[in-house]
Write a structure and sequence with these properties.
- The chain has one domain (10-160): Gcn5-related N-acetyltransferase (GNAT) (Aminopeptidase, 3-Layer(aba) Sandwich), CATH 3.40.630.30.
- 31% of the residues lie in helices and 33% in strands.
- The chain has helices spanning 20-29, 32-39, 48-55, 104-118, 133-142; strands at 10-14, 62-69, 72-82, 85-95, 123-129, 147-151, 154-160.
- It has a seven-stranded mixed sheet, with helices on both faces.
- The longest helix has 15 residues, at 104-118.
- The two termini are 26 Å apart.
- Bound molecules: coenzyme A (COA).
- The site of coenzyme A (COA) has 20 residues, from helix 2, strand 4, helix 4 and helix 5.
Length: 163
Amino acid sequence: MNGHGPFPDLVVKPVAPGDEERLRRFFGRLSDQTVYRRFFTLFPAPPPAVLGHLLDGGGRDHESLAVLDGEEIVAVAGWDRVVGDEESAEISVLVEDAWQHHGLGRALIRMLTADAARRGIIVITATILSENGPARRLATGLARPERVEMEGPATYFTFRLAS
Ligand SMILES: CC(C)(COP(=O)(O)OP(=O)(O)OC[C@H]1O[C@@H](n2cnc3c(N)ncnc32)[C@H](O)[C@@H]1OP(=O)(O)O)[C@@H](O)C(=O)NCCC(=O)NCCS
């Protein structure tokens, strides 16, 4: 991305307040399955809290990245520091349907974990629906989880970053 690697035409950048309209268009292109797998619920349009969190520019305790193909966002991903646990962050990735299975998710997780590590994060968590084979394979293909806990329909993965 950003002129290098397997996606030379894609640009990755922090989500910024000016991205609201293209973020809404991105959400409008997602299938129900993709929305459900990320948010564990369906919605006709992104709820204000979801948009607001993505658009707030990030900070010490979270980061949101957008991948752009020209003017359009094709993926967003981020991490949030776990409240009350300075050294842990929950990671999430959302790739639009037409771009899934091309390696974007993997590239984004690599970037996010490197950024999180620079901000003092040593433990990464991910909550993935147990039926979500692609996300489970992506997570466990990148690193061996330290803990795997099933909770209702979801599986909660914990990874410790190499020091
Ligand atoms: C889960 C998700 C983030 C994965 O993103 P992605 O960009 O499709 O992920 P990748 O392409 O890096 O890897 C996924 C698959 O593509 C394969 N792949 C990776 N690089 C590839 C390449 N260059 N060519 C073909 N396939 C490739 C991976 O091996 C993996 O195989 P799978 O089909 O057995 O799952 C995406 O499907 C998504 O947004 N899903 C909906 C939301 C969600 O589930 N989020 C996760 C919970 S937060």
